[in-house]
């Protein structure tokens, strides 16, 4: 029986190091499930940590990292298509897929085989909805019932607008043909959890380390190459606040303070989304993210081998 491992958790929880260690021991390959690591030359800010993949004189194979140019358009549907291309190749070579990431929406789409991501954006509708209050958006969604209604994630304004977009498309095009989803091997899902204060400490320490080791220069180089500031701001977090700093909109202390706060908020939203996945039926085995990587890998591999004939 073919199986795959999923390792999820909030930012700065140690997912990459753990996924690499598990893949090393199981003859596996890591599949990044991260909405920003797909972009080339956005290395420090997205936490690719590519050095982690080089261990014991070998390089652990990884996928869905550095597959499109920074500044290019890329969306969830494209990610699903890329994932559906990569997964069969890993399995065909007898390797264990180790999915690793913190982008909950991408993980959910993969594990649940969401097909509605194929519905294209509607720019005109998005412009119309941009002036709506959140309550008006929720009412608009309620007034547009569809087969997507019970599946929709409306936890943020951006996702609510996308839900309306999908529902509107289905209402206007009831014969829409949705793509088939790939058949997944059985997935064993592990989550890394940390006490809030420890998580916050790790985020703060990592941010200051990155600021001191080239993060600002990375953003400056992207701007110098002609990538529009608004595109980098769209990528959020490090790229948003550092771009504003480089453009003179924020001074350095304000930039650092706002960025740190934003990353803490982001980690909290990640955990909220993972808990939602649990409520929706995804079985996540939570592990203590404070334990050494080797001990965590022992636990994951023991569970994996018990369930693998």
From TrEMBL:
**Residues bound to ATP:** 9-16
**What EC numbers are recorded for this enzyme?**
2.5.1.75
The enzyme's main class, written as a single word, is transferase
Q: Supply the alphabetized keyword list.
A: ATP-binding, Magnesium, Nucleotide-binding, Transferase, tRNA processing
Q: Tell me the cofactors it needs.
A: Mg(2+)
Q: Which family does it belong to?
A: Belongs to the IPP transferase family.
What residue spans carry the region label Interaction with substrate tRNA? 34-37
The UniProt annotation places substrate binding at: 11-16
Species name: Larkinella bovis
Query: Which gene is transcribed and translated to give this protein?
Result: miaA
Give the matching InterPro entries.
Answer: Dimethylallyltransferase, IPT, P-loop_NTPase
In this chain, the site described as Interaction with substrate tRNA is at 103, 126
* Subunit text: Monomer.
Q: Could you tell me one molecular function GO term of this UniProt entry? A: tRNA dimethylallyltransferase activity
Q: Which reaction does it catalyse?
A: adenosine(37) in tRNA + dimethylallyl diphosphate = N(6)-dimethylallyladenosine(37) in tRNA + diphosphate
Q: Name one Pfam family in it.
A: IPPT
**The name this protein goes by in its record:** tRNA dimethylallyltransferase
Function in brief = Catalyzes the transfer of a dimethylallyl group onto the adenine at position 37 in tRNAs that read codons beginning with uridine, leading to the formation of N6-(dimethylallyl)adenosine (i(6)A).
Q: Which domain of life is it from?
A: Bacteria
